[in-house]
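REQUEST FORM: STRUCTURE PREDICTION
Request ID: SP-0412
Submitted by: Lab K.M.
Chain count: 1
Length (residues): 300
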Amino acid sequence: MMIEVSNISKKYGNFTALQDVKFTVNNGELVGYVGLNGAGKTTTIEIIAGVSYPNSGDVIIDGHSIIKEKKEASKNVSWVPELPIFEQDAKVLDYFIYLAGYYGIGKEEAKKKAEELFSLVGLQGREKDKLKNYSQGMKKRFALAVSLLSDPNNFLFDEVLNGLDPQGIMFFRDLAVKLKRENKAVLFSSHILTEVENIADKVIFIHKGKIIRQMSIEEIKSFTKTNIFRVVLGRIDGDVIKIAEKYGNPKLQGNTIFIENFNGNIPGLSSDLLNYNVIEMGKVEGNLEEVFFKLIGEQK
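STATUS: Completed
RESULT:
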């Protein structure tokens, strides 16, 4: 019983969003799904959830094909998108009871579940509010409560940490670990790599629609001892890489330079980049962030 993603590909016109993506999420396993913006994380998760179809390949959920047996497959998977869409004028408790009906849960049972789940996600006392009065973080908490309604075996969380305050992030961390202990299969994407590293058993790296690596947390910790130095700049231009080349092998990601094999001359680097408004600089230790940027850099 698990999520099996079997060689799925997806195209939008001439653009290939996913190419031959294959991985599994076992019961009792927390799997992090990481990649740059536009890498294909959301497209993958939407296909697993059954709201989008691949051009080829399939997804098997607890033995059922999401393409050939969508109704059966969808029964046992719960999905929280990055930006949940709800009826904004609805009162929270009424809407929860309405959604429970889709799972065959009656009004009285739904009220009991609401009391339990709203308490769990920290929304007790706000049940009579309209959803339009909820913050983004509260809407995300509500979406998490809805995801737990039918007690499925499999969970998909797409950038669920976005919009959550530190307390909300801690709650999700505890919830994910709880689901793992209950032998659930959990796939979650996030840009907060430290949180992925904190709770994941395995991390899947996707880049430009292709899976480039799958690694356990133990493998990540022992993967590389490369000396990488990170510099976050307020502005960049065509000369900044040439300047950084004096100190190692630089790669530019947005407004951040990652210098591999850094020679250790921090005062010199800081002085040379003075006109670029240095926001932050420091060594990237042997962790998920270092592995992530090393793997992405190797693809260029």
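NOTES: The first strand starts at residue 2 and ends at 12.
Reviewed by: T.R.
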